[in-house]
Model the fold of this input.
Amino acid sequence: MSAAVVNLLQIDPIELEFGYGIIPLADVNQGGDLLDRVVMIRRQLALELGMIVPIIRLRDNIQLSPNEYIIKIKGVEVANGNLMLDHLMAMNPGLVEEEIDGIKTNEPAFGMPAIWITESQRDRAEMLGYTVVDPPSIIATHLTEIIKKYAHELIGRQEVQVLIDNVRQNYPAVTDELVPKLMSVGEIQKVLANLLKEGVSIRDMVTILETLADNAQITHDTDLLTEYARQALGRAISRKYFIESKSGVITLDPKLEQVIMDSVQKTESGSYLTLEPSVTNNILGNLTQQVQKLVQLGQQPVILSSPIVRLYFKKMAEQIIPGLVVLSYNELDPGLEISPIGVVSI
Done:
C-alpha cells in the first residue's frame, strides 16, 4: 500500500471542522488565535484531568454552512454549533433584571439560553450583569467540555503507557511492582477510563498506581479496583463537590441499598443488576423527586451511598440523569460536615 493510502486510514482522535466563514478565527495572518487557544485547552486539561489530550486537528470543510462548526471524536460527529462572527454572545448568569435586545440563541457547550448582541451593546450588557463572550471563546469552551465528556474514550493503552513511564522516572518501585506482574496496561487503562468517565482527575497517578498495587493481588475486577482508587483520591473528589464545609446531600435508604446488593449478579465479564423494571422505575422516580428538591435550592445534587452500592446505583441513575454525582462515604474528607437533605427510598 502506498503511504498516501495508508495516511487515509488514520482517524484523528479529536477534530474541529468549520465552515469558510470561521477560517479568519483560525488564520494567524488574519489575527485569529484559535490555534493558541487549542494549545491552552490541552495544557488546561492536562492540569485538570491529568491526561495527555491527543493533538486536536483543525480543518475547514466547505460542505458546512459558513458559520457552522462540528466537533468529531474518532471520526464521528458528537457536537456542533453556529456562530455570528460579527456578534458577541451574552448569557444571563441568573442575576440579570432587565433583558437586552438581540437575537435569541442557545450557548452550545451547556445549552443555556443566550443572546447575540453587537459590539456596541457590550458595555451595557456587562453593566446589566450579562456574561459576554466572543466567538473564539465559545468554540474553545465547547471543545473543552466535549473533551472532558469523552476523556474516557480518548485515553488508550498508548496514552496510559506514557503516563506509567512518566511515573517510572521518579517512582520505579511502584510501577515495577504493578506492571506487568499484577496488572496489564489494558487493565490499568480501564480503571483510568472509569475515573475519567465520572470526572475524577487522574493527575495523582502515583496514588492511583500504589492503590492498584495494593489491591490487584486480591481482585482483578477493574470496576472494584476503580472504587479503591476513588477512595484513595477521596480528598480531591470531596474538594471538587463540597466547596463549603457544610454541604447538603441525598442519601440512600439502607433498605434500598440491601435490595440493590441482593440483586447484583457476578459474571465472568463483570457484575450487573437484575432488578425488576418496575422496581427500577420506582427507585428512579423517587431519585428524580429528591434531585429536583436540591436543584430548586440552587445546589448541585450529590448522592451519598455505601461503597459497595455506589457503582451500581451510579449505573442505574445514569439512565435518567447523566452526569449525576454519586459518592461513597469512604470518599468523603473527614473534615466535612454533611447534612442529609433527602433520602432515596424504595
Q: What stands out?
A: The radius of gyration is 23 Å. Residues 277-296 form the longest helix (20 residues). The chain is about 45% helix and 20% strand. The CA atoms of residues 188 and 230 lie 14 Å apart.
